[in-house]
UniProtKB/TrEMBL annotation:
Residues in Sleeping Beauty transposase HTH domain copies: 1-52
Residue stretches making up the Transposase Tc1-like domain: 71-140
InterPro entries linked: Homeodomain-like_sf (IPR009057), HTH_SB (IPR057667), RNaseH_sf (IPR036397), Tc1-like_DDE_dom (IPR038717), Transposase_5 (IPR052338), Transposase_Tc1-like (IPR002492), WH-like_DNA-bd_sf (IPR036388)
UniProt domain Tc1-like transposase DDE: residue ranges: 149-287
Gene3D superfamilies for the chain: Ribonuclease H-like superfamily/Ribonuclease H, Winged helix-like DNA-binding domain superfamily/Winged helix DNA-binding domain
SUPFAM superfamilies given in the database record: Homeodomain-like
Name the UniProt record assigns to this protein: Transposase Tc1-like domain-containing protein
GO molecular function list: DNA binding
BP term (GO), one: DNA transposition
Highest taxon, organism lineage: Eukaryota
Amino acid sequence: MAKTKELSKDTRNKIVDLHQVGKTESAIGKQLGLKKSTVGAIIRKWKTYKTTDNLPRSGAPRKISPRGVKMITRTVSKNPRTTRGDLVNDLQRAGTKVTKPTISNTLRRQGLKSCSARRVPLLKPVHVQARLKFAREHLDDPDEDWENVIWSDETKIELFGKNSTRRVWRTKNAELHPKNTIPTVKHGGGNIMLWGCFSAKGPGRLIRVKERMNGAMYREILSENLLPSARSLKMKRGWVFQHDNDPKHFKVLEWPSQSPDLNPIENLWRELKVRVAQRQPQNITALEEICMEEWAKIPATVCENLVKTYRKRLTSVIANKGYITKY
C-alpha cells in the first residue's frame, strides 16, 4: 500500500478551525477533499495534545539494551582491536541476538567507528622518555632558534607505488575504465632513495642515493651538500643541523630516535610524493627528474609554516605522554 502524503500544517490547522466553529467531521472532509477518518485523527490529536504539530515518533525499539550498549562500549574502549564478531558473541552469551551491522550502528551512535589502525614507529619505554625529555627541554625555545635549524632525512619513492591516495569521480560500474585507475606493477616497479634537507627559508639540496647508505657515504653526502645548502639558504652564524639517530649518522643535535613526527621534513616528503604521483612518471629516470623538479617548486612559505608551528609538535608529544602524535 502506497504511503499517503502528509498533510500540511495549514491544512491541519484549518481542520481544527472548522471543528471549533461546529462543523462535523464529514462536512470538513467534503469541504477540504479529505477522508472522514483523516479529519477525525487530526481532531483527536488536537484534543489530546493541544497541537497539530508532528510529535516525536518512538520508532522501533533498540535491539541492544542500554546495559548491553555499555558493555560493548566498555569492551572496545579497553581493547580497540575487538572485532564485531567478538561483540556479537558476547551479546549472544548475555541473551541478545544481533547482527554485525547492528553492532556498527550502535557503536557509531556512541561516537565510535571502525578505522584502519595507523602504522607508527615502535616505541620502547626508553624512546618515550627520550621524546618527552626533548619536548620539555625545547618547549620554550624561541622561534628564532628553530628558524636557524637545517632539517634532514632520507625517503624512498616508488615508481608505481602507493605514494599518495588518489580519488576519482566516476559513475557506477566504471571503476575499471583507464581514466579511473592507477597503473601498478609487481613490487612497485622500482624505487629511488633520496636525501634532502630544508630550513624555514626553503628547500635545500635533494640528491639521489644510489648505493646502500653507510657512515662513509653519509659523511660524503653531508660534505658535498650540507654546507652548500646552508649557504644557499643564507643560514645565520651558529646554525644547527638536525638528523635522526640512525647508527650510521654521527650526532650533531641530540635527537630522540623513532621520532619522525618531530621532524617537519616528513611533511615535505609527503608534499613531494603527492606532486610526483600527479605527474605519473613512467620510468626510474623520469622519476628522479620529476622529484628534483617538484622539490625545487615547493614554496618557501610551506617550509616557513612547518617551522613556525614547531612548538605545537612539542606540545602534542607532552600531551600524548611521549607517544606518537598526529604529525
